[in-house]
Amino acid sequence: MTALRPHAEQQYADELAELSATDDRPRPPGWRLSPQAVVTYLLGDGAKITPKYVGPRRLMEIAVATLATDRALLLLGVPGTAKTWVSEHLAAAISGDSTLLVQGTAGTAEEAIRYGWNYARLLAEGPSPAALVPSPVMRAMETGTIARVEELTRVPSDVQDTLITILSEKTLPVPELTSEVQAQRGFNIIATANDRDRGVNELSSALRRRFNTVVLPVPASAEEEVDIVTRRVAQLGRSLDLPEVPAAVEEIRRVVTIFRELRTGLTEDGRTKLKSPTGTLSTAEAISVLTNGMALAAHFGDGVLRPADVAAGIVGAVIKDPVSDAVVWREYLETVVREREEWRAFYRAARDA
Ligand SMILES: Nc1ncnc2c1ncn2[C@@H]1O[C@H](COP(=O)(O)OP(=O)(O)OP(=O)(O)O)[C@@H](O)[C@H]1O
Ligand SMILES: [Mg+2]
């Protein structure tokens, strides 16, 4: 049996071992690697270490440096800017374990952040350490590792506030057992939050003060975005064992161009203003449109990524609201796509989709 999606520390075990063997800089207490080596792991070294994050080095340095202090890290950004991806790789590189994860939702309860009880045992034996069910955060404190909290701003604010004691006192009291769990060195928290959710449960100022915020930007240029998409599509194709489809630079470039133009509301040449659809059209969505296209081409096409393999995916990503987005898309199709000589085949495919 093989896992459908291995954790980062499993998938990149070789790279992590290689870095650890050659890393001669000081490592903060509880860390598997030095801060320098963690940044190299994230950005790659042009040789054996592959880039995971593509973007400003400085942001990763700030993120990693934060985790070596007593402040926690908040990764903020619009959807699809690699917040979850970066947090997983940071935990893998620093702690060798990216699995201590709390998924934040409106229904996240205090037990998910502190601890719960095995009720059968609790009733039979009363409160005892054996009846206690530690949360991922509690386990990270005990083992001196990184815990991840996804979508922190979706968590109700009274539940968010349970993190305040943990982050400021580095301890988690267990009154039922008149004991506490003291965080071991190496413990810290990485939270992610979506820009668009802000205001839903704005972080309390007390909590915000315990975090350093790093805002992950959308890719700065079309070239950078094409680079990210090309890499990730190739990686995903390999891990899904898709039959080899030659990476179709032209199709990738087109998807990225369409998404960027609609996102920014302006054509690449800066000449035509466009209406933007309601969806986000993130890099992540471009990656998934292309991965689906590759699967279509491999299984039902001639093994080459054709415009028709991506057209339906693009239309599906753009039209989230069947009324207003459909109007935006039709206008884009007729005024921009149609006019581009080299996009003829795509125009026809998109019109039929
Ligand atoms: N700058 C980037 N470098 C590398 N990969 C990126 C980058 N931007 C996006 N990706 C890719 O996009 C995909 C989605 O990223 P991820 O799920 O981490 O986004 P997110 O910011 O957590 O989004 P959401 O707000 O929807 O949770 C991942 O496969 C990731 O590799
Ligand atoms: Mg995410």
Automatic annotation (TrEMBL):
One of its GO terms (molecular function) is ATP hydrolysis activity. It holds the Pfam family AAA_5. It comes from the Bacteria. Residues 73-211 form the ATPase dynein-related AAA domain. PANTHER family: MAGNESIUM-CHELATASE SUBUNIT CHLD, MOXR FAMILY PROTEIN. This is AAA domain (Dynein-related subfamily).
